[in-house]
Automatic annotation (TrEMBL):
Keywords carried by this UniProt record: Calcium, Repeat
Membrane-spanning intervals of the chain: none
GO MF annotation list: calcium ion binding
Annotated ranges, domain EF-hand: 158-191
Protein name: EF-hand domain-containing protein
Top-level taxonomy: Eukaryota, Metazoa, Chordata, Craniata, Vertebrata
Amino acid sequence: VKAKDCKNVLANMGVTVTEKEEAKLLKTLPVSRKKIHASKLPVLMENLENELEKDDYKDLISYLPMDENEMVDLNAVMEEAKTFTGEKVDTDHLSHELRKMGLVLTDEEHKELLASLSAYSGGKIYKKRLLKRVKNLKGPQVKIKKVESLLESMGVRMKDEEYEELMAQLSANGDRTVGLNDLMDAVSYIK
């Protein structure tokens, strides 16, 4: 992101800043060719009014590609930062939270998900982060009756006609579920 485009990039993420805040941000960010040093991420997140807790920061760092100089791509940071917003869910009651969202995981997928959440020891995780982790699994299922609420949780907004087209394209198995990957493929086709 070019320094002169910083305000527009933030606006596209839903973050509005005044001219004074933009000037302060540009002075405090050690940006070099669209990269920022990993040690400055807390300052960046604070300036974006998104102060991360320790577990969130560990999670963010683990997902960002870092070069040998501990520099990370600013666009990757901005994209990951979007998932640190909204509602949080309790990691101690993960099975319950997944059922509420209509997600069905095998025992193996559930273990894999728990392992990926090790940074969140007995706490809470943003629902968008959790859903991102679930999407990385191979084979999770979604209950057909929960498709609409799951998509809303993921920030996917659809018109009624689009939703009807989506439901017509999805083929449920005997458990009245559909594969999450199949669902996301159908959504990207329609949108």
